[in-house]
Write a structure and sequence with these properties.
Radius of gyration: 21 Å
Structural class: alpha+beta
Number of helices: 9
Strand order of the largest sheet: 8-9-11-10-12-13-14
Largest sheet: 7 strands, antiparallel
Shape: globular
Number of strands: 14
Number of domains: 3
Helix content: 25-40%
């Protein structure tokens, strides 16, 4: 399929793919093949790689098309800014730059960074080295060379994340609703859900939270009043998951005593159907 094709249902429109193709050519890449989510390409040195473009298009969609070339150039520059020689053999030498990431699991058929499932969810925790304008995922090979376990470095990364999170990170959205939203836009907002119990005062029944995209976190302390309006959080998650770049989940999660649970909220017309996990009854008893 050529970059000018505009088949119905094709997620990346023809004009956008033409802009990407032009910028790739200017940067010295040759295109091997397109698919519905990105492009396989070859560098001047002959190395082959695949670049996902769905998130880039979500960022490009709201801006005028004449600004797309600059946006694509910035994206490509970030991809090539961190070279292999920037990654130390011993990861402990960059311990202060370790950060956690939280998102959907990588395709196991592709090259994959180190990761561990977040129990109770379909999500995965990964580790990155934070650079001024980009980041680099930590792989199993990098861990082996450093003689480190990912789980041990994760503790360091979570500690670093707490240190770079300002005390007023979470802002309450209104006087009426006790929902707080955090969005620094530094690439680690969703990951801050992993330290939510350190960011907010303890509550007897825990917190509901949503992470619709990489750069959004919304949290609501569980209450009897909130249970009747939980659809508001679900609608927030659905809309932002659909519209924003780097989508993660349109689900509502419940975090209680250090554990995560899916909290089922289904909107059926004017009705809200709740499928709460089994321990939720115990948590509600604590509120009463």
């Amino acid at each position: 399929m050529s970059a000018s094709d505009d088949e119905s249902g094709w997620p990346l429109p023809g004009h956008f793919r033409m802009v990407v193709a032009a910028e790739l050519a200017a940067a010295g890449y040759s295109i091997i093949a397109w698919d519905e989510h990105g492009v396989a390409l070859r560098s001047v040195s002959g190395d082959e790689q695949y670049i996902g473009l769905t998130n880039l298009y979500r960022r490009a969609r709201p801006v005028p098309p004449d600004e797309w070339p600059a946006l694509v150039r910035e994206f490509l520059n970030r991809l090539t800014r961190v070279q292999t020689h920037d990654i130390p053999t011993d990861l402990t030498t960059v311990a202060d730059r370790l950060r956690p990431r939280l998102g959907r699991p990588f395709d196991r058929q592709q090259a994959h960074p180190w990761g561990m499932p977040l129990a109770g969810t379909p999500l995965e925790i990964t580790l990155v080295i934070d650079f001024p304008h980009t980041m680099a995922y930590i792989t199993a090979d990098m861990l082996a060379r450093s003689r480190q376990r990912g789980e041990d470095l994760l503790d360091i990364a979570l500690h670093n994340l707490r240190n770079i999170t300002p005390p007023d990170y979470l802002e309450r959205v209104s006087d009426e609703l006790d929902i707080s939203v955090g969005s620094l836009g530094d690439g680690y907002d969703a990951a801050r859900a992993l330290i939510i119990e350190a960011l907010l005062p303890d509550t007897p029944a825990g917190h509901w939270l949503v992470i619709p995209s990489r750069d959004e976190l919304a949290v609501w302390p569980v209450s009897l009043a909130g249970l009747g309006r939980i659809h508001i959080l679900k609608m927030f998650a659905e809309e932002n998951f659909r519209e924003h770049a780097y989508p993660i989940a349109n689900d509502v999660f419940w975090v209680w005593r250090g554990r995560w649970y899916p909290f089922g909220v289904t909107l059926r017309g004017n009705d809200v159907v709740i499928d709460a996990p089994e321990p939720f009854g115990e948590a509600l008893a604590a509120l009463r």
